[in-house]
Amino acid sequence: MAHRVLVVEDEEDIAFPLVRTLEREGYEVEWVDNGEKALETLASSPELVILDLGLPDIDGLEVCRRAREDGYDGAIIIVTARAGELDRVVGLDYGADDYLAKPFGLAELQARVRALLRRTSSAGGHAAEPARHDGLRIDIEARRVYAGTEEVPLTGKEFEVLSILAANRDKVVSRGRLMADVWDENWYGSTKTLDVTIGRLRQKLESVGVTDRVVAVRGVGFRLEGGTPDA
Ligand code: CA
After folding, report:
1. Alpha helices in the chain (DSSP H)
2. Is residue 65 part of a domain?
3. Structural domain tally of the chain?
4. What is the pLDDT of residues 26-70, one digit of tens each?
5. Whether residue 118 is found in the same domain as residue 141
6. How far, in Å, from the CA of 53 to the mean position of ligand 1?
7. Ligand 1: distance of its center to the CA of 54 in Å?
8. Could you tell me if 119 and 91 lie in one domain?
9. Are strands 144-147 and 136-139 parallel, antiparallel or unpaired?
10. What pLDDT, in 10s, does the model give residues 169-221?
11. Which residues surround ligand 1, an ion (CB under 5 A)?
């Protein structure tokens, strides 16, 4: 079955070659040129979105944030001509999986798309069952997480949430503490963002066969505990 990819890009000169390239690669591609249409189309859950930041109506970052808040759990690649802003954008963590500065080479983009789809389709169970790993290893200094020898690609916020839970393994960490430590005191959003981050974290850990689980403790917070693999 062909992977469905959504291209959100208002400049035809960029969108057309991109869509053609992806279609040649065998993907089922949809193209929209503004943020409103992007959010509408995301409701049909394409597996991957290539999202431009400079859109005529809603800023791409806002589209990304709202998509995650609405529970969209496919892959998001942000592309931007605002190269100078890229570091800041990555640091803020709007829930994107990858970032690419314009102008980008089509081969580079294709490689990123392939890598992300490989990852998300194994989470969706289309690909072969991942090898089971018991060990979850967190390299705090390098900010990298491994399941056995395989690296688990986490966003900044996912990494921070996981490292706090891991430092308090088998104990409950309150929502308030996670919000305060991972999002700063200027955060005025709802804790739904925390739930979305936890959801994606769980999915990524499961997709590589990590048996440790992030367990929700109703009304209190979350706990990381060792689990047994599903039969
Ligand atoms: Ca644009």
Report:
1. 12-24, 35-42, 60-69, 86-92, 106-123, 156-167, 175-182, 192-207
2. yes
3. 2
4. 999 999 999 999 999 999 999 999 999 999 999 999 999 999 888
5. no
6. 6
7. 4
8. yes
9. antiparallel
10. 888 998 888 888 887 655 555 667 788 889 989 988 888 888 888 998 887 88
11. 10, 52, 54
